[in-house]
Amino acid sequence: MRFIASFVWSYLLWLVLTAGTNGLLWSTQELMAGLMFALIVGYATRDVIGERAVRFLNPMKWLGFIAYSPVLFWGMVKANLHVAYLVITGKIRPGIVRVPVDLENDAQYTILANSITLTPGTLTVDACPEERALYVHWIKIPEGMERPESSEPVAGPFEKWAGRLGR
Amino acid sequence: MIDYLVYAFLAIAITFNALGSIALHRFPDVYTRLHGATKCTTFGTIFAVLAVVTHALYRIHATGDPKYLGMTLHSLVALVALLLTNPVGAHAIAKASHLSGYKPVKAVVDAYEEKLGGEGK
Question: Could B95 and A126 be called an inter-chain contact, meaning their C-beta atoms sit closer than 8 Å?
């Protein structure tokens, strides 16, 4: 099962990188060479990819990620304009806050921490799944927000999405 | 017409990349600089890739030349790689600098220091 997961991923990447060799499709040579290389890579990396990575082959999960990208992009637009304003004016109030989160597995923590880092103004310094918290460097902490009770003021809707996508 | 859309995307990309560079000079310490250096440039690069993709798709439509399909897909793969690795790199730099003793300048709160202090470090 792990072999199939890494094989499918490497073959997909090969197909994306070699599209357009025969009209807008693939030539037979590219398909055969890709098959061989994907078999080799899939066999060699079957122990690197964990058993549970198979769940990311589920097409519903891909639809979830596609639906997530506009949410993330809109978060990035808002936050980028905010940081652009801070860069120009220099009015910052930085600090590292502890953000309690309610997630189950490592994939969810990775998605949430990366989303928080990608939206400017907040940067994940450390993720501690054992105490169910993220440590986030926040560039402009609002007054009275030094000890946030939930992830909502820092991450907005991202915690819900991370919980849904990484399940 | 499409050309102006490409120019607009490129203008946004350059603006945000420039802001990221200015942030390096204006902010006081490593954490705040990471905000500018990693995030503004990611956002700028998204628009640079959008400009490439728009141009290439228009060229496919106009000429049917398959080499532009490769251009589109390769830029998108580069964008995905950037979006996956950039936050991980920023996180690694921030954690490493905190562990090696660089404290945030002018910080109003430092919960991470309290956690490390609580562990007797």
Answer: yes
